[in-house]
Write a structure and sequence with these properties.
Layout: E1 43-44, E2 54-55, E3 58-59, E4 95-96, E5 102-103, E6 107-108, E7 113-116, E8 121-122, E9 126-129, E10 142-143, E11 146-151, E12 154-159, E13 165-175, E14 181-188, E15 193-199, E16 205-207, E17 211-212, E18 220-225, E19 235-244, E20 251-260, E21 275-279, E22 282-289, E23 293-300, E24 306-312, E25 325-332, E26 338-343, E27 355-357, E28 365-373, E29 382-390, E30 398-404, H1 424-432, E31 434-436, E32 439-440, H2 446-455, H3 459-462, E33 470-471, H4 478-484, E34 488-492, E35 511-513, H5 522-535, E36 541-547, H6 588-592, H7 599-620, H8 623-626, E37 629-633, H9 654-657, E38 658-659, E39 661-664, E40 675-677, E41 681-682, H10 686-693, H11 706-712, E42 721-725, E43 731-736, E44 739-744, E45 761-765, H12 781-796, E46 804-805, E47 809-810, H13 811-819
Parallel strand pairs: 30-36, 30-37, 31-40, 32-41, 34-35, 34-36
Antiparallel strand pairs: 1-2, 3-8, 4-5, 6-29, 7-23, 9-20, 10-13, 11-12, 12-20, 13-19, 14-18, 14-20, 15-16, 15-17, 15-19, 17-47, 21-22, 22-29, 22-35, 23-28, 24-27, 24-29, 25-26, 25-28, 31-39, 32-38, 33-46, 37-39, 42-43, 43-44, 44-45
């Protein structure tokens, strides 16, 4: 059982305030030279049997043309009347408010174009590969029996069943100046662990984290990025490659590649899709600047507007020494030319946010050039993010979306569900807004549920059904809609696997902050949000806050420890009967702490929720939040006890699917405030509802508005079908009124005492059996048949355009997820049907 934690604040990962430490110098600078086209790159052969092809570098080509502005959708009717005027091209970007005045969004994000300098060269990637020898014994293999064979014109290595793994000892020259990525390509029909280690003659070695493959028939590439070796002069002479597996597994290695990626290539070029770029857990979407390639944007300036951007010297990718300088040159044809000098911090890498007023260029078209200058031999790359032109507002709107992880619907005082729990902040919110009594999540696992929340698409269609895979960049997210409408979009997630190293919910968020190791307590997550409200008092905000406190292990801080457990009572009293249940049916920390009274972890779970409610209250008291829109929900619930299984969310039941949902704030129409809504709703429609209430009813986003159904209040809505798919696609469920049916799509057990068999069903009557303890599929055969047919038909309608991308996962990440109680089996994303009915 988790120990009570100190209620200390985690150090902020990076400054969040948008205050500039830069000053406008008195002098001016000339515009950069015009870009010129260049001849094509040249190839040359290298010596040694390992070298196949490399680049000398190339003179950069001319920059392509691109529209100066992204298309920015207008804000909703009556929300903002802005003074930006016709500052961008295209009448579709404008909006006519209810007074008939033409206005624009408060934030415009100009497109960046690459700014290329004549005569400068940009190093290109070099790639070599290691041929497999005819006699594999020269690589001293240990473990599985293996051999090399010719196949389709190339030599490959085949490892047969036998030992649990295979170790290859490859001797040669692997100089760090030429290698910063090693790729192992092969076919792995089951999950394998791959590890590499480089050793030098002087005893120096580099070992990269172990990565996992997926079990599938097609070739996979396992890439080990080694940016720490860039710029270092280390001669390695030994490469050890270990592929772990089981005694019955087989695999094939097709190639081992040695790659040298210039540091700048780890970030996209200006004009390309920005990538998540991190400074100690503070992530922004950025492109890269190098001395040979800057960036440029253009826009029309108006009086009162501001310009800002964010710059970072990324760890391992930026220069190793000195104080990198980025010049931001603002000019116009008939106005002044002025320069912002941004000197960046290396130790630790920190985002710097230069900004200035655009009043000197009011009425002119402004050109902004970003130039990174360095005289270092290895200057690295500088990250450029959040290039914005914005207009301060007196009363900007605000939307706060809160997800309380693993929070059961009955663990809110306002739910009046007979649970002894104090949640005064949430209760007060419910009194002022709408409490939805029957909200259901679409799955029982964190990342897939949040993806559904942020995309309005069911896990059936996203195909993201675990905490390991990544959300595809093809997804259209709720944050992107707000961002296109000119809102500042900000997110704090309290667990690492929701951040850019995991599922990556950051798409569409200007900034996302996440823990690099252990989950954050609510006190720290709320502190970060409060900093943002202080930093952006004059910007429209869409803010997402993810809290993890209610998730196991239940270890509330001392302020709330044992809040619901009798004083002086020892839950590990040896006179109490010992627990007979064992992992995985109960978390191991409960047993290791000697707990014998299961009322204790139940009480600690409630204490965690009261604690996060207390912290959330700090935000909910802010006048700006009350004047906007607040939504509080959960990604899934928790099984406190179910047929011999305790404290997990390992199956689809009302315990894991029924979640809180409260909407409040001045943007909620007055006639709805203080109401309790009994009709069933789900997460998929929450995004649409928020957009409509934010005045963005015309924005393209799936779903329907909850309030329409709440207003009708028709009894027919009680029969709304609510569907769910479990983690890893083990089960699917349908809820229709009083009936809840489970269909098992795979044979599985997990945290359940009784194994569930593929093709079997369970049916529960929620009115007479809300805990789902008595399966009535036999007695209600006709009802079960109807619901099963509906569920199978719904599964068959799944979209083939899924939004899940498989990524490599380190053993450290796997271990962290498993410590939280998550199953980490690989789930192969395919377009195959979710369910193939049995032939009976």
């Amino acid at each position: 059982m988790g120990q009570a934690r100190e209620e200390t604040r985690v150090p902020t990962p990076a400054p969040l305030r948008s205050s500039s430490r830069m000053a406008l110098p008195d002098g001016t600078r000339k515009s950069l030279p015009s870009p010129v086209p260049s001849p094509p790159p040249r190839l040359r052969s290298g010596g040694g049997h390992l070298i196949r092809e490399e680049w000398e570098g190339r003179v950069v080509a001319s920059m392509p043309s691109a529209p100066p502005w992204r298309t920015v959708a207008p804000l909703g009717v009556g929300l903002l009347a802005l003074a930006l005027g016709a500052a961008c091209t295209g009448s579709d970007e404008a909006h006519v408010d209810r007074r008939g005045e033409r206005v624009l969004p408060s934030t415009l994000r100009p497109n960046l174009e690459p700014l290329l300098y004549p005569g400068e060269t940009i190093p290109e990637e070099t790639r070599t590969w290691i041929p497999f020898p005819e006699d594999i014994l020269s690589w001293s293999p240990k473990g599985k029996p293996c051999r090399t064979v010719e196949e389709d014109g190339r030599r490959v290595l085949k490892a047969d069943r036998g030992e649990e793994g295979l170790l290859l000892d490859i001797r040669g020259e692997f100089h760090s100046a030429h290698v910063n990525r090693i790729q192992v390509r092969g076919v792995f029909r089951s999950a394998h662990k791959v590890t590499i280690r480089l050793e030098g003659p002087d005893g120096f070695f580099h070992r990269d984290p172990t990565l996992r493959t997926r079990g599938q028939e097609k070739e996979q590439t396992v890439s080990f990025d080694l940016p720490k070796l860039v710029g270092r002069n280390i001669p390695f002479d030994r490469l050890l490659v270990h592929v772990g597996g089981t005694t019955g597994s087989r695999f094939q290695l097709n190639a081992i590649d040695l790659v040298r990626k210039p540091r700048h290539s780890f970030l996209p070029a200006p004009g390309e899709e920005p990538a998540a770029t991190d400074a100690a857990g503070h992530s922004r979407r950025a492109v890269g600047l190098v001395p040979a390639r800057g960036a440029r944007c253009e826009f029309d300036a108006v009086r009162g507007a501001q310009f800002s951007c964010a710059l970072l010297s990324p760890r391992h990718l930026g220069p190793k020494s000195g104080q990198p300088l980025v010049s931001i040159i603002l000019s116009s044809q008939d106005g002044p030319t002025q320069t912002l000098e941004a000197q960046l911090t290396l130790h630790p890498p920190t985002w710097t946010v230069p900004s200035c007023s655009l009043d000197p260029w009011a009425g002119s078209r402004v050109q902004v050039d970003f130039q990174y200058t360095s005289n270092l031999k290895n200057p690295g790359v500088i990250a450029l993010a959040e290039v914005e032109v914005w207009h301060p507002l007196d009363s900007p709107p605000c939307v706060l979306l809160v997800s309380s992880d693993t929070h059961r619907s009955d663990h809110v005082g306002a739910a009046q569900a007979g649970v002894d729990i104090q949640t005064p902040s949430l209760d007060g919110l419910a009194r002022k807004g709408l409490l939805f009594e029957d909200c259901w999540a679409s799955t029982n696992v964190t990342s897939p549920s949040h993806v559904a929340l942020m995309t309005g698409r069911h896990p059936r269609d996203t195909r993201l059904i675990n905490n390991i895979d990544r959300l595809s960049l093809d997804a259209a997210t709720l944050a992107e809609v707000y961002q296109r409408a000119g809102w500042k979009t900000l997110a704090v997630v309290s667990v690492r696997h929701l951040g850019p190293l995991g599922t990556d919910l950051g798409q569409g968020f200007d900034q996302l902050v996440y823990p690099q190791a252990d989950p954050w307590p609510a006190v720290h997550a709320v502190d970060l949000i409060e900093e943002w409200f202080e930093a952006y008092p004059d910007r429209p905000l869409f803010v997402f806050l993810h809290l993890f406190d209610a998730h196991h292990p239940y270890a509330p801080p001392k302020s709330h420890d044992r809040m619901y457990y009798p004083t002086g009572v020892d839950p590990a009293d040896p006179s109490l009967p010992a627990l007979k249940v064992r992992p995985p049916y109960i978390p191991g920390d409960i047993l290791s702490a000697g707990i014998r009274d299961l009322d204790f972890p139940r009480a600690q779970y409630r204490a965690e929720i009261s604690y996060l409610d207390n912290q959330l209250g700090r935000l909910l008291k802010r006048e700006r939040i009350q004047a906007g829109l607040i939504a509080v929900t959960a990604d899934h619930g928790e099984i406190l006890e179910k047929a011999g299984s305790y404290f997990n969310h390992g199956e689809l039941f009302p315990d894991t699917l029924h979640v809180p949902l409260i909407l409040a704030g001045d943007l909620v129409p007055e006639e709805y405030r203080g109401e309790r809504v009994g009709i069933p709703v789900d997460h998929l429609n929450l995004g649409r509802t928020l957009l409509d209430l934010s005045g963005l009813g015309g924005a393209d986003f799936p779903g329907s508005n909850f309030l329409r159904a709440a207003k009708s209040g028709s009894a027919g809505n009680k029969a709304l079908d609510l569907f769910a798919i479990s983690a890893h696609g083990y089960s699917a469920s349908i809820r229709r009124g009083r009936w809840f049916l489970l269909l098992h799509m795979q044979t599985h057990k997990g945290n359940l005492v009784v194994e569930r068999v593929k093709h079997t069903i369970e049916l529960y009557d929620l009115e007479s059996d809300p805990e789902c303890l008595e399966d009535v599929a036999g007695e209600q055969a006709e009802q079960a048949k109807i619901l099963r047919a509906t569920l199978v038909g719904w599964l068959a309608e799944a979209s083939t355009e899924h939004l899940s991308e498989q990524k490599q996962t380190s053993e450290a990440e796997i271990a962290q997820l498993e410590a939280m109680g998550y199953a980490t089996e690989a789930t192969v994303v395919t377009d195959e049907p979710w369910y193939t009915p049995d032939e009976k």
